[in-house]
Amino acid sequence: MAYGAVMSANLDLLLVNPGGRDRIYQQLGEDLTAVEPPLWCRLIAGYIRDRGYSVEIIDSEAEGWGPETLAARVKADRPTLVGMVVFGHQPSASTQQMAVAGPATRTIKDLVPDQNVIVVGGHVAALPERTLQDEAFDFACNGEGPVTIQELLDVLRAGAPFDFSKVQGLVWRDGGHIQNNLSAPLIKDLDQDLHGNVWDLLPMEKYRAHNWQCFGNLKARQPYASIYTSLGCPYKCTFCCINAPFGANRYRMRHPGAVAAEIDLLYNKYGVRTYKIIDEMFVLNERHVLGLCDLLIERNYDLNIWAYARVDTVKPHMLEKLRKAGVRWLALGIESGSEHVRDGAEKSFSQAEIIAIVRQIQEAGICVIGNFIFGLPDDDLATMQETLDLATELNCEFANFYSAMAYPGSPLYRMAVEKGWPLPQEWSGFSQHSYDCLPLPTDKLEAAQVLKFRDEAFDRYFKNKRYLDMVTQKFGWDTRDHVERMTRHKLRRRIVEQSEAGRLGTSAQTAA
């Protein structure tokens, strides 16, 4: 435990985005993935700075810093509190960031043993006590974070004796016991308290969009920013852990005018035209969505925005305004080509509805990213093939292929624990693209079969002549060449290699 040296600090709070693209994405992180401004670093920093504390942010991902460089910066700054922020850029990215946040914190502790460190994020909210048991953090947060960090700073500033029992949402060590305080209430006024207007604390020149968002003009990947218009999600998809920090089905919205003002700032000060709306479900509340669209249409900024939607929340009459406002891509959670498998994952819409809405979106001049999952609980080889067949038929401008993963905080995680299914031994194993990736098995498939099918599906989709011809026609030969070079990246997978080695070994023994 730290707590001792807080009065000598020159800085109140140092927030850290731990990064670690190389471990999470293997070689894909070099130039294909996005480098996004860390949303929750911004939100927490704004909340804390508004309350009179000094704050800095280190974006280790954008800076390319390893643990040693980070620890040296911490030693130089000597903040009262370091906040490791492991929310990630989407809900499923939180747990995989623990693979970097844990070692980074141990390195800090080796160099500065009395440094106070708190960890916040979706993974932490799902497994708060285990996080403190397994890692070197002094504190963890069982909720979204800002209130807990502010109250903890209040206690640390007051000095010894430290009374952590009244810090809402704090998980802390009390002698040999771990105490888990009641969670802080969710912040209601997002525009006032979670505005995140601390862009001056970030290396704005280092952020870039995903490759696909700028198909047709890959040089437009920078400058780039990600913003939010809502927090949480009212749905209960079995594979999703979005609500771990917020409680069940909590959904809060910003005022469209506040979002438009943030875009004004980013456009005029930093020249940002390329955006991600980070909301887990942007196209949901029609009044909210169209209110923002009207404001952006008035500005006529010629933006390139991508956002998430569901098949059953996109209404055809909304599409014209979305396109005029600058929405160029919508990511749809299609998940499976089998209606039975979709029903089991709480995605109850028909094949006909999927095809119809994809075509309507494309006819409105908006590109579609189809998100598909292999290895959902009811999957077998035949239903996974149905998923790939549907993806091929839809021929979306881009597609994400995932393996079903038991992310902490999701219903699938609880199911996996109850059934004794194997889970990754290291947090990096929860990354979709890591070497030690370990998806869930199904009743009919081993995890290695699921992962092998996923990787082969990626190859088959992006090498398909019909897809490449569509890309050429829509985005040009340079983009086609980019896609063909993208498919040359081959991910190594430990469980697939082990499975193949075992199969070859068995075949050799049989032949002998």
Explain what the structure shows.
- By secondary structure, the chain is an alpha/beta fold.
- The chain folds into 2 domains: 6-174, Rossmann fold (3-Layer(aba) Sandwich), CATH 3.40.50; 208-404, pyruvate-formate lyase- activating enzyme.
- The protein is 42% helix and 15% strand.
- The chain has helices spanning 21-25, 39-50, 60-63, 67-77, 93-111, 122-126, 128-134, 146-158, 190-193, 256-270, 286-299, 319-325, 339-344, 351-363, 381-394, 411-419, 447-462, 465-475, 477-486, 494-511, and strands spanning 11-17, 55-59, 79-85, 117-120, 139-141, 170-174, 177-180, 224-227, 230-232, 251-253, 274-277, 304-309, 327-335, 367-374, 398-403.
- The longest helix is centred in the first third of the chain and has 19 residues, at 93-111.
- Residues 25-29 and 507-512 have low confidence and may be disordered.
